[in-house]
Amino acid sequence: MRTLTYYVASSVDGFIAGPDGSFDFYPAEPDLMDWIKARYPETLPTPLRRALGIDDLPNRVFDTVVMGRGTYEPGPAAGFPSPYAHLRQYVFAHGVTAPAEVTVAEGDPVELVRRLKAEDGLGIYLAGGGNLAGQLRDEIDEWVIKLSPMLVGTGVPVLPHAFAPQRIDLIGAEPLPSGVVVLRYRKL
Fold first, then answer.
1. Residue 174 sits in a domain of what CATH number?
2. CB-count burial class (<10 Å; 0-12, 13-18, 19+) for 187
């Protein structure tokens, strides 16, 4: 069975984006970019993969991405209507117009993710989107949190929604020279 991995950058105080959804305050640290290229290159949008000269790398971890409106819309706004062309793409947003290679899913995200998990293939990448992650919380099998050494104060939390403590198992912690710590957790 395939797994759903919530792969996201976060501030120390638990925010993935600012109040307006912006995330450009997270620096693209060279050591973090090298780490991503070596371990999770398919999480980089297709135009960035091209710019970095890694667009020919085969997918190793993920072959599918699910995302919400806030994660999807910066791609088309920058002229890239299919931001993850190297993956099967699903965007959960009402009223979004997307090219044929991007599936706009307006139903229950849990139902779709369960169907995707039952298929053969590589893992499923949950890209950004605290709201979508909150809806899919019980379906997330692994968390990869790139913890940035900064405080934001307010914004989009890593996992908004109701108070519901849940223990997860730390399976890796990798500090990088820039101060970013990559934390990996798995559902117990």
1. 3.40.430.10
2. middle
